[in-house]
């Protein structure tokens, strides 16, 4: 089951902004998991999520035990990964059971030759995995070395391993109550909430999903009239609209349509949606506050999107920083006297945070940086996030 679900998850790719837990649910359903018991479904979730988070590390460990590397067969590789994850990173599955299950699955789908290969590799793995765990920190936590260096710069060498471990854990689903809807029942809570659209109160608009980091950014935006230059998917704009009128700009017509649907569910009336590029927004006049929640490398969302660990390169951060600075430049003229410009990114690289902010301050002495916020999963139980507030003098 887990092998088939992993194949379907891989075939479907990142699927936009959907978090891993929802993509896992879709993949498992497509693999026919509905007939499993609740206990088996929970195990399947854990296996698919765990293998996805540690894929690069598991592949390196398994390949080290073969003379010619891993076979060019997706199902066999997934079976090896699942068994290796059970052996080295789960304590509830006996080693012999993990090996036996993988061998039987491969034998039934790919035949005895590959099954024998799987048996030999996994028996070696049982004796070797503890040695693998002593590898350097980047390999141990399945992060690219440059990402580890960025984390170390942000939290210090003493906390870097704790920070990486926290990023490798699934994020809790955080619900934000909607004050526009009278709802007397307690909102669900806990890590295992599953698909939020199936929860009681969703259809009525009683809540929206919003990580703690995003809620903290919303708190930085003050004033009665607010411009949100990178609005989709809309969570911040809708939260700000509880106390202000918001003009929300986004270049994607499709994303804006989804925002309209969400606004209707949440009964939001204080947000005006405009299609346009944040670098040349279709608005006039000035605002009490402008929010630039800029596109970024999204490294801060690894708890929800672990594939970011191997899909983002160091050069991507440099490319993102160019757009981020351009958006701040475009936002500056729309901030009224005494108004706030709030810059926010769900990442932690120096070039997308400190460097962008420093360059903006150098180019715009009329703005004073008054707040700087850095959040980390291991410290704040939130996505890794950065925000800065500039006030126009």
- Mind telling me the CATH superfamily name of the largest domain? Vaccinia Virus protein VP39
Indicate how many domains the architecture comprises. 2
Cα shape: globular
Count of DSSP-assigned helices: 16
Number of separate strands: 9
Beta strand %: 5-15%
Q: Which architecture of the largest domain per CATH? A: 3-Layer(aba) Sandwich
**Whole-Å distance between the termini?**
60 Å
Q: Largest sheet, order of strands side by side?
A: 5-4-3-6-7-9-8
Q: Any idea what the radius of gyration is?
A: 23 Å
Q: Could you name the ranges where pLDDT drops below 50 across 5 or more consecutive residues?
A: none
What percentage of residues falls in helices of 4 or more residues? 40-55%
CATH topology of the largest domain: Rossmann fold
Largest sheet: 7 strands, mixed
One letter per element, helices H and strands E, the order comes to HHHHHHHHHEEHEHEHEEHHEHEHE
Average predicted local confidence, pLDDT? 91
């Amino acid at each position: 089951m887990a092998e088939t679900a992993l194949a379907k998850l891989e075939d479907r790719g990142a699927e936009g902004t959907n978090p891993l837990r929802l993509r896992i649910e879709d993949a498992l359903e497509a693999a026919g998991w509905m007939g499993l018991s609740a206990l088996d479904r929970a195990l399947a979730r854990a296996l698919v999520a765990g293998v996805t988070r540690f894929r690069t590390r598991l592949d390196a460990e398994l390949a080290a035990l073969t003379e010619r590397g891993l076979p060019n067969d997706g199902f066999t590789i997934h079976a090896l990964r699942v068994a290796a994850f059970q052996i080295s990173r789960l304590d509830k599955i006996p080693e012999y059971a993990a090996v036996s299950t993988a061998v039987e699955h491969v034998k039934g789908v790919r035949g005895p030759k590959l099954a024998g290969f799987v048996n030999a590799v996994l028996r070696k793995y049982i004796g070797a995995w503890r040695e693998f765990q002593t590898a350097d920190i980047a390999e141990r936590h399945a992060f690219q070395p440059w990402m580890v260096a960025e984390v170390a710069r942000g939290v210090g060498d003493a906390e870097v391993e704790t920070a990486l471990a926290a990023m490798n854990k699934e994020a809790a689903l955080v619900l934000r109550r909607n004050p526009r809807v009278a709802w007397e029942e307690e909102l669900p809570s806990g890590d295992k909430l599953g698909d939020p659209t199936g929860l009681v109160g969703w259809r009525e608009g009683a809540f929206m999903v919003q990580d703690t980091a995003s809620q903290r950014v919303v708190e930085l935006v003050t004033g009665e009239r607010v411009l949100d230059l990178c609005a989709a998917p809309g969570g911040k704009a809708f939260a700000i609209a509880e106390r202000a009128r918001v003009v929300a700009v986004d270049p994607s017509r499709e994303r804006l349509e989804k925002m309209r649907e969400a606004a209707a569910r949440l009964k939001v009336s204080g947000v005006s949606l405009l299609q346009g590029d944040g670098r040349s927004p279709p608005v006039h006049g000035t605002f009490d506050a402008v929010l630039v929640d800029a596109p970024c490398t999204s490294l801060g969302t690894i708890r929800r999107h672990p594939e970011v660990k191997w899909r983002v390169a160091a050069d991507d951060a440099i490319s993102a920083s160019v757009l981020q600075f351009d958006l701040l430049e475009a936002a500056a003229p729309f901030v009224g006297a005494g108004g706030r410009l709030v810059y926010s990114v769900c990442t932690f690289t120096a070039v997308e945070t400190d460097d962008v902010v420093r360059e903006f301050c150098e180019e715009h002495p009329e703005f004073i940086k008054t707040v700087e916020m850095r959040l980390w999963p291991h410290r704040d139980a939130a996505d890794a996030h950065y925000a800065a507030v500039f006030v126009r003098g």
